[in-house]
Structure prediction request, 207 residues.
Amino acid sequence: MARLIAIGDIHGEVNKLNSLMRKLEIKPDDVLVFLGDYIDRGKHSKQVVDRLIELSKLCKCQFLMGNHEYSMLMTFEGVDWAKTYFYNDGGKETIKNYGGLDNILKIHGDFYKNLKYYYLTENFLFVHAGIRPDKTLEEQENLDLLLIRGDFVDRKHNLKQKVIFGHTPFKAPYIEDDKIGINTGCGIRADAPLTAYICNENKFMTS
Ligand SMILES: [Mn+2]
Prediction:
């Protein structure tokens, strides 16, 4: 049976991504939904994106925008706050890994510019950070989808779908009736795993 699999924040940890993909034994009819924050902090952001592009040739993949990719893209647009954020929250590792800032867009510009803010199925909404609970999906603002924390994590929302999110780190998957958080700190702590949630089997897997 085809699986619907969400994968949490990777942050340049290509070895953990490879390990998790091996354990999942990806098949051509699987659908992988990556929740964003592929880059920064870890040393191998470029290799992570190379691997993601490879995976998109092996099975169906949805690549969502994280706040780190957004800040990087806005840095190229000359947005001051984004530049400050990018340079102070792991972006220096990404620039070094690509061999210079300009190489990022030359090598992977198409990938970054095509990232989506959310992915919706009948039973699940996938999004990097979460949603503003008192708004409909159509009313959401992109910056909330990328950055919201407690106002989403600590409150119930009204969507009929379960929300699968990353961004806010937890030691183990954060499981509520209406949401599941799977950022288990990959790229923050050396011993923190990368986590996947197999949605239609209600199972977790770690790197
Ligand atoms: Mn994030």
